[in-house]
Amino acid sequence: MRAVLDALARDDRALLRQLLHPYLHWTEGGRTVRGRTRVLDHLAAHPAAGPPVSYELRDGQVYRWTGDQGVSVNRRWMRHPVIRLPAYRVLLLPGQPGRRKGER
């Protein structure tokens, strides 16, 4: 596992290809990515948050990686929350231009 962590820190894709199983399951931040190629693409955009909470080896390669479930790798969504309301409701704040009182 130390070799995998070192390769991740150096972003050594050639070595990671040898250390990661082709059918790898990578779970981190509540999201699962499957397949070595997809995981490598994911890691290029979202580096690993740290060592795994648990892992599984098969044939000397990492087959399953489970990172910290409570930490999201990509927190952009937290800055722009989406509030979904039923379509028939219209919320107007006092003083906001728009509909008149009693109008639907």
Question: Care to describe what's here?
Answer:
It is a single chain. The radius of gyration is 22 Å and the shape is globular. A four-stranded mixed beta sheet has the order 2-1-4-3. The protein has helices at 2-10, 13-19, 36-45, 76-79; strands at 20-28, 31-34, 54-58, 61-66. It has four helices and four strands; from the N terminus they run ααββαββα. The chain is α+β, with helices and mostly antiparallel strands and 104 residues long. The protein is 29% helix and 23% strand. Helix 1 runs antiparallel to helix 2. It has a domain at 2-70: Nuclear Transport Factor 2, Chain: A (Roll). It starts with a helix and ends in a 25-residue tail after the last helix. The model is unreliable at 70-86 (pLDDT under 50). A hairpin with a 2-residue loop joins strand 3 (54-58) and strand 4.
Descriptive key words:
alpha+beta; 104 residues; 23% strand; four-stranded mixed beta sheet; Nuclear Transport Factor 2, Chain: A; single chain; globular; 4 helices
How confident overall, as mean pLDDT? Answer: 77
Q: How many DSSP H or I helices?
A: 4
Biggest sheet: strand arrangement: 2-1-4-3
- Main structural class: alpha+beta
Number of separate strands: 4
Distance between the termini: 62 Å
Q: Write down the CATH class of one domain.
A: Alpha Beta
CATH architecture of one domain: Roll
Largest sheet: 4 strands, mixed
Can you tell me the CATH topology of one domain?
Nuclear Transport Factor 2, Chain: A
Level of helix content? 25-40%
